[in-house]
Amino acid sequence: MSTRAESVSSSLPVTAESENTAASKALIVGGVGIALTAAGLFVSGGGKVAFSWLVGMTFWCGIALGMLFLVMIHHIFDASWSVLLRRQFEHGLAAFKWLLVLFVPLLVSVFMFPGAVWKWMNPAFDLSAVGGHGTVGDDILWVKKSALLNPTMFLAITVGSFLIWWWLSERLRGASFAQDNDGDLKWTYKNRKTSAFGLPLAALSLTLCIVLWVKSLDYHWFSTMYGVWYFAGCARAALSVGLLIMVWLWNRGDYKGILNHNHFHSIGQLMFAFTVFWAYVTFSQYFLIWNANVPEETFWYNLREINSATGMANQWKWVGMLLLFGHFVVPFLALLSYKRKLSKTEMPWVAIWIALIFLLDLVYNIWPSKKDIHGDALPLLQLHQVWTLTAVIGIGGVCVWAYLKSFSTTKLIPIRDPRIAECLTYHESTAD
Amino acid sequence: MAAQPYGLMAVFDTVPAVFHAAEAVRDAGYKFWDCITPFPVHGLDRAMGVRRSKVPRFSLAGGLLGFTTGMSMIWFTGAFDYPLIVGGKPYFSPMFAFPVSYELTILFTAFATIGGMFILNRLPMHYHPVLKADQIVRGLDDKFLVVIEARDPKFNLAATKALLEKAGGKEITELEA
Q1: Does A333 contact chain B (CB < 8 Å)?
Q2: Among partner residues B52, B56, B96, which is closest to A432 by beta-carbon distance?
Q3: Which of B85, B102, B103, B113 has the most A C-beta neighbours within 10 Å, making it the best mutation to test the interface with A?
Q4: Residue B97 to residue B67: CA distance in whole angstroms
Q5: Is the pLDDT at A2 greater than 50, yes or no?
């Protein structure tokens, strides 16, 4: 089996040319998306475009973080079937340094326009503009949380986290790629150690970042589930992208003779497991707040359901219902079927659906914090959501470019990984 | 006429031998037959043409039953049979009924899966004709056995024996019912 793998990957230089062309195209798409989003500054203003940019950043950082976690989980469990998928995730990790660069506009906004995105950046922010009273500086709920919610911590944690993710990625990538050349087992052990300390580091930094980036948009709110909620979404989006890559490489012929139906079954099972995990976490957050019924917490969901001015349901209520059914019920039922998990025509649609609904989940968590003078959420369907799309496409183009650039530099699969033979002959379930 | 035997049993020495014998028996169109191996042989189900287990259908039914039991039980006790306000909440809401329904979904799924497995494999089985044959001891140790039952529509003592011989089977014996 491994000889076949080598012959397949040795044919890579032939296709490297096409990958570079594809990478250039992705970069052009990314550049156009970023330019359009920048143009949006003159149409909708900086405050709204920054929210769109934040959606794009959390979406693509989420996918990259999901990949980082899955690679480290792979190493920590000494897994075998996922060896070939791990290589594709390693390429995805190449995006982190560019994601840091793309986060810079938001960091600049913190110092040039404090309060434009995160109200609490500016203690003089007048809360009456968003349905409150007094200023942020007078607000006891900010004062009590100000040890974390201040520009210095924001800058330090954001930049520090990106550096941690970048550093972990380079360690994992470097050792894995080096093993392709010499087959030395020390690289496997090195990655296992990296993962052992990398998992808690990444978990902590992911939680702090999502709390600062998104949860603190409504800094009154409390939720102990927030970091786990984001992690669940990250893992689901990363697995979906992983499945799309697997099908893409299968259809292109690269994975012929390498993948068998058990690999597809296993990634489908993981997608299913994380669907249940996401639902568990998201329901826990909602249920505890619903049950305790404390105003400091329930306002977050009220904002996403009714307009206080009219008492009528707003558009976000239907987004919430769509998340309940679209993010859980539909993928849950779709992924129950064994046959569907093996289908290379149906699963890509399930994967695209999950990735897009993860995006919607982020929109649902970010956008309602943009409020009118009554403190009600601005409706979903407005012109400025165009900039959310351009931001997602723009940042996505850069991430895909980084992935493809890395893809063309290494072997298709880690041919000298100690588990590669086990992976290629992976056998779990049998008859179909 | 002597009593119809339970079936025919053949002994094979190696995994590849029993694997190819299984393929031969499958291709000959037999339905009521089995392989007995001392350890799981990867891919043997496919070589035997065994279809996927029907246990998941029991599991799904159990899960649906568990979920509806949880929801309806809480609605019945809290909102219908003895309406009672608890914690200022509505008489019934899927919110607080969900954790219980979810637990019952898992519990009933587990019961249905275990039960479905026992129904489908007809265990426990206190008597099986194969256990009377001497070769079964080796079949649980270091030999591989193929058993074709007489109730199979394709079964024909001479022809089936010939098939097993052709597939490389040794010590072909008629099993007493």
Answers
A1: no
A2: B52
A3: B102
A4: 10
A5: no
How many Å apart are CA B27 and CA B5, to the nearest integer?
23
Size of interface A-B (CB pairs under 8 A): 30
- B92–chain A Cβ distance below 8 A for any pair: no
Q: Residue A9 — very low, low, confident or very high, per pLDDT cuts 50/70/90?
A: very low
Question: Average pLDDT for residues A423-428, to the nearest whole number?
Answer: 83
Distance CA A197, CA A300 (A): 35
Q: Do B89 and A283 touch (CB under 8 A)?
A: no
Total Cβ atoms within 10 A of residue A295: 8
pLDDT per position as a tens digit, A208-263: 999 999 999 999 999 999 999 999 999 999 999 999 999 999 999 999 889 988 99
- Give the C-alpha distances (Å, rounded to integers) separating A377 from A301, B30, B97: 11, 68, 30
Chain Cα centroid distance, residue B91: 44
Residue spans per domain, chain A: 15-424
Tokens of A19: 């990958």
Q: What is the ipTM of this complex?
A: 0.84
Cβ A431–B88 below 8 Å, yes or no?
A: no
pLDDT digits (tens, 9 = 90+) for B6-61: 999 999 999 999 999 999 999 999 999 999 999 998 889 889 999 888 999 999 99
Q: Rounded CA gap, A192 and A183, in Å?
A: 16
The DSSP H or E segment spanning A116 is none
Number of helices followed by number of strands (H, E) in chain B: 6, 4
Global pTM? Answer: 0.91
